[in-house]
Design a protein that fits this description.
Helix content: over 70%
Strand content: under 5%
Number of helices: 24
Shape: rod-shaped
Structural class: mainly alpha
Length: 621
């Protein structure tokens, strides 16, 4: 007889059974939790987290009715006290239970409640729960890409508020998806990440599932490489699940532990030689543990039937056909009494019985079980059709909801863009007003500065004009002073020339007398010269005060050219000297002075009646 065909199904069951543990490893035992939450003295606000833990314990042990009732109680209390984080966890628990029990009718509504509650919580961890439940929903709909998408969204939320427990659950789902894709590398990566986070969270129930995931990852590697160390790793991580169960009694659910035991037994059956007595003993031992652990446990018929199938296979190998038959019939009776419709396991059992009786030559029984297998195949088909219909309805509602959400998002995006546009217009208008105000202020300030600058330039120009006027006045004053000095010098030169000519004339007179032999009275001459000198000093001062243009005006008035002696006589007359003084200064006789006066009048064109002195005084004034 060949290996039971349903054993690979048991391995797949191990991969997906414990994917949503909500209970903390530090939580009290179920009895303690139940007593604590039932205590009326216990603070009602603190009950929701404990109720969620208790609901997960019930769910992990497949007591779905109690799990759902406890989760609903948690929802009521959480909403009453507006604890939306715990309400999100409770709704997630309800969705999880409906997925386990294939209650797809109300599943979409519950998933929407998870998302709504998470939005009200406004908490990254709550949003991670919402995305996680969406991933489970799409996993049910066989949309692996959407599962990965929502898992990634959940991990992004956990980047804002790390939660190792939720991270382990999300990485576990990514492991499951990649197991279906036979992606060996990612199966190992995500199983490791799930385990690392479960260790940080100290959740032994979740950690047990992650160890099982690591064993599957190493089984992938063993099948690819045939490296015996990988097989040892498979048994090592399955053994760690057993260690957790024994080390922390009550903290690891019996069902995941029993499945781990089945997987250990199946590994010995599948990968070790039939003659390996130690492998057989280990397989029988762990198959027996699975039966014992799940004795009288609800919804555990599939695992018990799997353990009986392994025992039947080993009995067949030993040639004990009767024992092998008894194990198969016992598995058949277990599945017949199952409350759940586990048709796939039942088909494996009856198909194995049909094959067994066919080999024994009992074709009647073989045909009976084959017909029963066909019946269950039809039931599976009908059940699958019904489930597919429900899944299609859920998918339709989900896509409809997603489309509505997409439309709302697009509208919100459009509204946001419109608001941004209005804001930009308002901002542009404000900036325009500010610019106009600044421009006006700048122009005003520039105008004021320009006016001020023009005033300064005007003042500077006026100052420059004033300075230029003052400079011109100064230059004119200097020129006038220079001209005056020049005139004074001219007058002084003229006076000195007159004096020198007088001295020269005196010397000539003395020379003439000496030449002629006349006596010269030098004492008398010196005395007279001293008097003349005194008079001349006075005359010199007066000559320097003559009008600067006096001699020029005389020459202009003269009809005939005046000689130097004529000009000298005019100067003396202008200075109001009498004939005697003039005669002495000019060293001539008084008669000669009068003759010279007459001759000058003629040259100036004056009549006899005209007074030369008055003419000269008028000319110099």
């Amino acid at each position: 007889m060949k290996s039971l065909p349903y054993l690979p199904f048991v391995c797949m069951l191990i991969c997906i059974c414990g994917w949503s543990s909500f209970v903390s490893a530090q939580a009290p035992l179920p009895d303690s939790l139940q007593a604590l939450t039932a205590d009326p003295k216990f603070n009602e606000k603190e009950k929701p987290p404990l109720l969620n833990q208790l609901a997960e314990i019930y769910r992990a042990n497949k007591n779905y009715s109690l799990a759902m009732a406890t989760a609903r109680q948690s929802v009521v209390l959480s909403l009453r006290h507006q604890n939306y984080l715990e309400a999100t966890k409770a709704y997630a628990m309800l969705a999880n239970i409906k997925l386990n029990t294939q209650q797809y009718g109300e599943l979409k509504q519950t998933v929407d409640s998870v998302f709504t509650s998470a939005q009200q919580a406004n908490n990254p961890v709550a949003m991670a729960y919402a995305f996680y439940i969406h991933a489970l929903l799409y996993k049910t709909l066989d949309k692996s890409d959407e599962v990965v998408k929502y898992c990634q969204l959940g991990l992004r939320q956990l980047d804002k508020a790390p939660d190792p427990y939720m991270a382990a659950k999300i990485y576990y789902q990514l492991y499951v998806v990649n197991s279906g894709w036979n992606n060996e590398e990612k199966v190992s990566t995500y199983a490791r990440q799930a385990t690392d986070n479960a260790l940080k969270a100290n959740d032994f129930n979740l950690l047990s599932n992650c160890y099982t995931a690591l064993s599957v990852a190493h089984e992938y590697k063993f099948n690819a490489t045939k490296n015996r160390q990988e097989l040892d790793s498979v048994l090592y991580y399955l053994g760690k699940t057993e260690t957790l169960y024994q080390q922390y009694p009550g903290r690891v659910a019996a069902n995941p532990y029993a499945i781990a035991c089945i997987n250990i037994a199946n590994s010995y059956l599948k990968y070790f030689p039939a003659e390996d007595a130690r492998a057989k003993a280990q397989a029988v031992h762990y198959a027996g543990i699975a039966r014992t652990v799940l004795k009288d446990a609800a919804n555990s018929e599939e695992v018990v039937a799997s353990s009986l199938g392994i025992l039947s296979e080993y009995a067949r190998r030993e040639g004990n056909e009767a024992q092998a038959e008894n194990y198969l019939l016992e598995a058949y009776q277990v599945m017949k009494t199952a409350n759940s419709h586990s048709y796939y396991t039942m088909i494996n059992v009856v198909q194995s019985l049909s094959n067994f009786y066919e080999q024994k030559g009992n074709y009647r029984k073989a045909l009976e079980f084959q017909k029963e297998a066909t019946l269950y195949n039809n039931k599976v088909f009908n059940q699958q059709q019904a489930l597919n219909t429900q899944k299609l309805e859920i998918q339709y509602e989900t896509e409809k909801k997603n489309n509505e959400m997409q439309i709302l998002k697009e509208r919100e995006k459009s509204r946001t863009m419109q608001n941004y546009l209005y804001a930009c217009i308002a901002l542009a208008s404000l900036l325009g007003l500010v610019f106009m105000f600044r421009s006006y202020h700048f122009r005003l300030r520039y105008s004021m500065q320009r006016e001020k600058q023009l005033q300064l330039e005007k003042q500077e120009s006026e100052m420059q004009v004033k300075l230029e006027k003052e400079e011109h006045a100064r230059l004119r004053a200097e020129q006038q002073l220079l001209a005056t000095r020049q005139q004074q010098l001219k007058k002084e030169v003229m006076a000195n020339v007159l004096h020198l000519e007088h001295k020269h004339q005196t010397l000539l007179n003395i020379k003439d007398k000496l030449t002629e032999g006349d006596a010269v009275n030098m004492q008398k001459i010196l005395k007279e010269e001293m008097v003349i000198d005194n008079d001349f000093e006075h005359a010199k001062v007066q000559i320097q005060q003559i009008h600067p243009d006096f001699f020029h005006l005389i020459n202009d008035k003269a009809q005939k050219k005046l000689t130097l002696l004529d000009l000298k006589l005019c100067a003396y007359l202008y200075l109001k000297m009498d004939t005697r003084q003039i005669a002495q200064l000019m060293n001539i006789e008084a008669k000669s002075v009068r003759m010279s006066r007459y001759r000058i009048k003629q040259k100036l064109g004056l009549d006899k009646e005209d007074d030369l002195n008055a003419f000269l005084q008028a000319l110099g004034s």
